Amino acid sequence: MRVGITGHRGLSHPIVSEVQELLAERLRRYDPGALAVVTCAAEGPESLVARAALDAGAAVEIVVPADDYRETLPPEHRSVYDDLLKQARGVHPTGMASVTPQARQVAGEILVGLCDELLAVWDGLPARGHGGTADTVAYALGVRLPVTVVWPEGARRRPAAGRP
């Protein structure tokens, strides 16, 4: 069973804690020996699920949106990303040089194509930029991939820079 994970970045600590519990509960439904988690391993839910999967004995596969993806991650997350990349059973590059909205969209489509199910840490709102979580969910639904939305009731994301 291959389960993809996509999710919002930059969530508050309380939301991350709740999401982590919800995702751990979801992962316990699978046999770790038969599970592979597919992720781009961004900071937040994506890396948390990947780490939990590895700790449980499952495999991880990483989709790399672009050659410069690592450099676009927060500096404090890069060692986490490097560790997940080293332990990955498979690495799937998009072939794109730079992280752009198009590269994020292509990465989401590759991720969806590799999965039997998608877990989405998504607040149900439109993407804040092309290739965001909402676009990955929409693509998954469009190709009839089962999607499970994991979002704490009543939680709200921080406003994006320059938005109310």
Structure description:
This protein is an alpha/beta fold and 164 residues long. The chain has a single domain, classed as Rossmann fold (3-Layer(aba) Sandwich). It contains 6 helices and 6 strands; from the N terminus they run βαβαβααβαβαβ. Strands 4-3-2-1-5-6 form a 6-stranded parallel β-sheet, sandwiched between helices. Helix 1 (13-27) links the parallel strand 1 and strand 2 (36-39). Helix 5 (101-113) crosses helix 6 (133-142). The chain starts with a strand and ends in a 15-residue tail after the last strand.
How are the SSEs placed, and which strands pair?
Blueprint: E1 2-7, H1 13-27, E2 36-39, H2 45-56, E3 59-64, H3 69-72, H4 78-87, E4 90-93, H5 101-113, E5 117-121, H6 133-142, E6 147-149
Parallel strand pairs: 1-2, 1-5, 2-3, 3-4, 5-6
